[in-house]
Amino acid sequence: MRYLLILIFLSTFFVSFNAGDNITLDKKEAEKAFELLNDIRVNPAKYYHQFAFLKSIKIKTTKLRWNDTLATVAETKAVDMADKNYFGHVDPHGYGINYWIAQSGYKLNPLWTKHKNANNFESLAAGMEDGESTIATLLIDKGQPSLGHRKHLLGLEQWNASLVDIGIGFVRRNVGGDFKTYVSIVIAKHDW
């Protein structure tokens, strides 16, 4: 059954992605976002002029590691949002990123996959010009009183600080839709 779900997941990605020239995966912008986020995490003082809040918080200075499995999950999610014209942590079928991470073969603690709509590992953005503005917008996190994106991306809490693997999907929608870009950033760690 698990392999059937993985097959469905991957086939959804390829069907969505190959649906035409309307949706394109922009790996260059995903890479720029990854590089900027890592640089901010490792060298926060370099960014005090842009993000004054960095002076007053304790950032986990651990470098994130690119993970191809998480990148595929993030890319698939971004393509799905662009293809189905929605923006949210839960897809139209009621599944959250925790479920899709587990289905990809990336080993998560079963605690994180109890509920099919759970999200503990994803930050989302839409309508961003590029990877760098995506990271800046999510770090500022104006719409979130809990500053959840900032905590997730910078590892500000003990639990978030333990997350070390990252994958980013940056997708452009060329025609129609609510947004021209969709971004999914997945940061997690293997639980053995």
The coarse silhouette is globular
- Radius of gyration, in angstroms, nearest whole number: 16 Å
In what range is the share of β-strand residues? Answer: 5-15%
The CA-CA distance between the termini, in Å, is 21 Å
The proportion of residues forming helix, as a percent range, comes to 40-55%
Order of SSEs, N→C?
HEHEHHEHHHEE
* Total beta strand runs: 5
Structural class: alpha+beta
Low-confidence blocks of residues:
1-8, 10-19
Q: Number of helix segments?
A: 7
Largest sheet: 5 strands, mixed
Average pLDDT for all residues: 88
Query: Which oligomeric form is depicted?
Result: single chain
State the main characteristics:
globular, 192 residues, alpha+beta, 7 helices
